Amino acid sequence: METLIALLAGALTTAGIWLMLSGHLLRFLFGLMLISNAVNLAIFTAGRLSMGRPPLLEPGGAPAPEMANALPQALLLTAIVIGFGLFAFALALTIRAFRAFGHLEVDRMRLAEPEPAEPELAGPELARPEKPAGAM
Asked: DSSP letter string over 22-80?
């Protein structure tokens, strides 16, 4: 079971990276969510799956020999909340970018970059000769 979930986390990571490299902001956002879910699955699997075992102490305070580990479950809940917050923030930025640019293609979003200048001619035969120090 752990091997299957690890393969699923790898497949989600692969699909997420592929979507993030596509050059479209909405696909980037979906890829980010896939990677977030893949990390959640990896944390869950690393905590060793224990089916039907609660992470509780027996009456008397002694830990049961077949008790589930509560730490990965707490980390997973925290990761879900952080992932949701990240998704909400990225979605708000995506909506703002769509309203500002009218599209979601990352390569066309060049508003903050300066316009390229005309290429200068290079080479000694095309360059202007320098004036001597005393000449006007």
From this structure: SSBHHHHHHHHHHHHHHHHHHHHHHT---TT--S-PPTTSPPPTTPPPHHHHHHHHHHH
Q: Look up the domain containing 82 and give its range.
A: 2-50+70-108
For position 42, which CATH number holds? 1.10.287.3510
Cα angle: 57, vertex 59, 64; to 5 degrees: 40
pLDDT in tens, 43-90: 888 877 666 666 666 677 666 666 667 788 888 899 999 999 999 999
Query: Domain total for the chain?
Result: 1
Identify whether 136 is part of a domain: no
pTM as predicted: 0.69
Q: Which pLDDT score is estimated for 88?
A: 95
Q: How many CB atoms lie within 10 A of CB 79?
A: 18
In sequence order, the 6+-apart residues with CB closer than 8 A to the CB of 16 are 30, 31, 32, 33, 34, 35, 38
